[in-house]
Specification:
The chain contains 5 helices and 13 strands. The chain has 279 residues and is α/β, with parallel strands linked by helices.
Length: 279
């Protein structure tokens, strides 16, 4: 498959190290692109559910592809989320083309894009509610495994796969979003800060919409996840779009050496880290 050049790619909520992670599909996607900038917007490695007993080869392949991007000149930003929050004590660590941070602003084509995971707006990840959130995460992993068993049976009978976990997750996220007004809070704060775009993850709901208030307007985007929706955000030809993985368009992932990419565009895309004000 011929690789697509993309200016910026945003991935979030991959949850490597869990049964729900669709790592094989993500490897296929990563092998199909050559991004100038790759932004990993939180919950990439799931430290809440991480176990030495479960980290299969496909999950390692995801990390290998990301490392290959760094080697080939892609600028990679890892923005921490709540499931990988233990990395936050190393915020603003920079090693070559790799940067670990907790929020990021990109200036692209004279427009400002504010990027962060989004758990800061979710009250269910704070205080005593955090313990319940972790219990819920464990239950969700069990549901994922049950869902895979059901789909295995359906496949034997030639039936289409179903996503019980997706329906449950959508219901939970809808309630959480309603309680916390997640999208509106992010958008209003971005408008206050005079940004043109705000990008989050966390709630596993891919989205692109314009939010307008009496103080202005902003384009809100969410990169979704690689558990159920298999989505990413891509910036190309002056426009943000939601990429949705379609397994019919991708061959089975194979180990192929990646050729060095072309020079990374650095003059047209500026990034700001240390100068950012706290959320």
């Amino acid at each position: 498959m011929e690789k697509r050049p993309v200016d910026v790619v945003v991935l979030s909520d991959v949850h490597l190290g869990t049964y729900g992670c669709r790592a094989k599909e993500l490897v296929n996607y990563l092998k199909s692109i050559t991004p100038n900038i790759l932004i990993l917007n939180g919950d990439i490695i799931d430290c809440w559910q991480f176990s030495k007993r479960y980290f299969p080869p496909a999950h390692i392949m995801v990390l290998k592809e990301i490392l290959q991007f760094i080697t080939n000149g892609t600028r990679v930003f890892y923005i921490t989320g709540n499931h990988d929050e233990m990395m936050r004590k190393y915020t603003d660590t920079r090693i070559g083309n790799f940067t670990l941070t907790d929020k990021l602003v990109l200036e692209i084509d004279n427009k400002m894009t504010w990027i962060f995971h989004g758990d800061v707006f979710d009250n269910t990840t704070k205080g005593g509610a955090k313990f319940l959130a972790k219990l819920g995460s464990s239950g969700y992993q069990g549901l994922i495994r049950f869902n895979r068993f059901i789909n295995f049976i359906l496949k034997l009978f030639g039936r289409e796969r179903v996503s019980i976990s997706k329906r449950v997750m959508a219901g939970v996220n809808k309630a959480v979003s309603k309680i916390n007004d997640f999208e509106l809070i992010a958008a209003e704060l971005a408008i206050e800060k005079k940004y043109d775009y705000v990008i989050c993850g966390h709630i596993h709901q891919p989205q692109k919409k314009v939010v307008e208030t009496k103080d202005g307007k902003v384009t809100y985007l969410n990169s979704g996840d690689w558990v159920e929706h298999l989505t990413a955000l891509e910036y190309q030809h002056g426009e943000w779009s939601i990429f949705e993985y379609d397994e019919k368009k991708f061959p089975v992932a194979a180990t192929v050496e990646m050729k060095p990419s072309l020079s990374v565009i650095t003059d047209e895309i500026n990034f700001y880290i240390n100068s950012l004000a706290a959320i």
